[in-house]
Amino acid sequence: MIQKAKGTYDVYGEYGKKLLYVEELIEGLMEKYNYEYFRTPIFESSNLFHRGVGETTDIVTKETYDFKDRGDRDITLRPEGTAGIVRSYIENKMYGNHITPVKAWYYGPMFRYERPQSGRFREFYQFGVEAFGSSDALIDAEVISIPVNLYKLLGLKGIKVNINTLGDNESRNNYRNALIEYFRPHIDELCEDCKERFNKNPLRILDCKLDSNLDIIKNAPKTIDYLNDLSKKHFEDVKKYLSAMHIEYVVNPNLVRGLDYYTHTVFEVEASIEGFGSQNVLCGGGRYDNLVEMLDGPKTSGVGFAMGMERLMTALDYEKIELPIINDIDCYVIPMSDNEKEFAIDICMDLRLNGFIVDIDYLSRNLKSNFKQADRLNTKFVIIIGEEEKESNILTIKDNVTKEEYKVKIDNVIDFLDEKLSE
Ligand code: ATP
Ligand code: MG
Fold first, then answer.
1. For a FRET experiment, which of 60, 197, 289, 328 has its CA 20 to 30 Å from that of 407?
2. Is the pLDDT score of 300 beyond 80?
C-alpha cells in the first residue's frame, strides 16, 4: 500500500467541514477589511526565495524543496507566501497603476522540509496578508488586528499578542552592532547554527530554538534601547492604534522573528492554552520596508503576517469550539424503480439548483434500506417517487423527523420545502 509522504496529511470528514467553515470566515473577513485576493504560483525560481526570504534563514538553508525542472531551471516549492506576492507586486507594476496601498491576502499550501511533529508539517497551509505602500503605523496595527479579529469571530480565547520593534535601518544597524559586541566573548557558548548566525545575521541568534533559554540570550541587548526618535514614534503609534482597536498586547523585547527582511514592527500571536505544546505560535509577521527594493522593485514599504492553519484548527479543538457546520441534508430522493429514475433525477437537479442540499439513491436500494440511508444522511425530508407520483405529478414527501407525510404538487415543492425548512 502506498502511504502519504512524510509530513503531509489528508483532509476529509468533520475536519474538512470545519476547515471550509474557517476558510469562508477568512474570505468574509478579508472582504470586510477590503483586501484583494492574490494567488501566486506554488513554485517559483529558486532565486526568489534565496533573495527574498534570506540566504541565512533556516527556511532557505535547510527547509526548501528544490528541484531542476526538465528545462534545467532551478525551481523551489514556495516555503512561504510573502516573496511570491512581492514578486507579483513588482512584476505587475502595482506601485504605478494600482490603488495605494495595495492590500493583498492569500491562502494556500507552503512546503518546508522540516522534522514533522505536532503542529509542524512538510506541506502546510497559510493564510496571510501583505500591504504595500504605506508607512503609517495604522496599517501595522490593522494587520495585527486581522488574526486577532479572526480568532475573536471563532470564539478562540487563549491567545496572546506579542509585539516588538526592530526600528528603521539606522536603529537596526546600531542594534546589530551592539549584539555583535555583546556576543563576541560568548561565541563558544552558542550552538553551531548560532556561531554561523553571529557572522551573517546576529539578530537571528535571538530567534534560536536551541539556545533560547540561555542567560546570555535572555540578557542580550534589547532593540528598544537602540531606536532613533522616528522609530520610537512609529512604535508608540502602533501601540496607540492597537489600543484604539481594543487589542490587548504584550511588548516582548526578545521577539525578532526568523526572516531577514523585517524592519520596525514584528509580532506573533501565540496560543496560551494548557497542554497545547511547544508549536504554539499561531501566526507571525511584521513590517518589511526593505523587501520590495531587495527584489528589484522601487523603495516601497510593506507589512504583513502569515498564519498556520493547522495550528489554528488544533487550537479550536483544544478549546472545544463548536463551529456551526452543516451535518444534515434537506432532501433524500428515492425513485421506487428504474422507471421513475429520470423523473427523480430531474427533481433532484431542480432542487439543487434552487439551493437545497439534496441526495439521491445511487444503489437501487429497497425502500427499507433507503430509509436507513436517509437516517444516516440526517435528511430532513424524503421524497418518494413511484409510478403514481410520476403519473399525477403529485409527490409524496415525508418529514423524516416527525414522520408526517404530505402530498405536494410538483410545482409547489420548492415553496413547500422553503416554508417547512424555515420553520
Ligand atoms: P516556527 O518558529 O514555529 O518554525 P516560523 O517562524 O518558521 O515558525 P513563519 O515562517 O513565520 O513561521 O510562518 C507563520 C506561521 O506558519 C507560523 O506561526 C506557524 O503557525 C505556521 N507554520 C510555519 N511552519 C510550519 C510548519 N512546518 N507546519 C505547520 N505550520 C507551520
Ligand atoms: Mg520554522
1. 328
2. yes
